[in-house]
Design brief:
With about 170 residues, this protein is mostly helical. It has six helices and no strands. Helix 1 runs antiparallel to helix 2, helix 2 packs parallel to helix 6 and helix 4 runs antiparallel to helix 6.
């Protein structure tokens, strides 16, 4: 299972890195055409918007794989022992439920419903854009299950970590 996780990590890093590079080049092109040529590119705004959506969802899924996602941990950090582990499991199950019902099922529903709707400029099905929702949802569920399986039996925060809020 660790080999599968490493493969997914690599694929996500390659895709999101390529999209970030593409996003940067497209943004520079948009600025160049608007201010230097005086004739703004008509497709770059839509391409940038769609790329940013995909980067956000794939990057968010990757963060779950690294167990570095955004968390409000003030309650979790105050609890120790088995109660701490129980709270972590509850949080894990809520995340899996959200990913399943909102991202996978809801995302699939909206992607399917919008396959006939074309984007205004690129004329591609909007379902392709919304298709990132179920894809990222499946990845989040995989990562969350992986993290749960690899978590120590009783995870107790170290005393020096309690109340230590690091800004990333």
């Amino acid at each position: 299972m660790q080999a599968v996780k490493k493969s997914i990590d690599l694929v996500l890093l390659v895709i999101t890195s390529a999209l970030v590079i593409f996003l940067t080049v497209a943004a520079i092109w948009q600025v160049f055409t608007r201010f230097v040529l005086g004739d703004p590119s008509i497709i770059t705004e839509e391409v940038l918007r769609f790329s940013l959506i995909w980067i956000a969802f794939l990057g968010g899924a990757y963060a779950f794989g690294q167990d570095e996602h955004l968390a409000i941990s003030f309650l979790r950090d105050k609890i120790t022992g088995k109660a701490h582990l129980g709270l972590r499991w509850l949080i894990d199950l809520i995340v899996i439920g959200f990913a399943l019902f909102v991202l996978v099922i809801g995302g699939y529903t909206i992607a399917s419903a919008t396959m006939a709707e074309l984007s205004p400029i690129l004329r591609i099905p909007m379902g392709w854009i919304y298709g990132i929702l179920p894809v990222s949802g499946v990845i989040v569920i995989f990562y969350q299950v992986y993290n749960m399986m690899n978590r120590q039996e009783v995870e107790v925060p170290r005393p020096e970590e309690k109340g230590d809020h690091k800004w990333m």
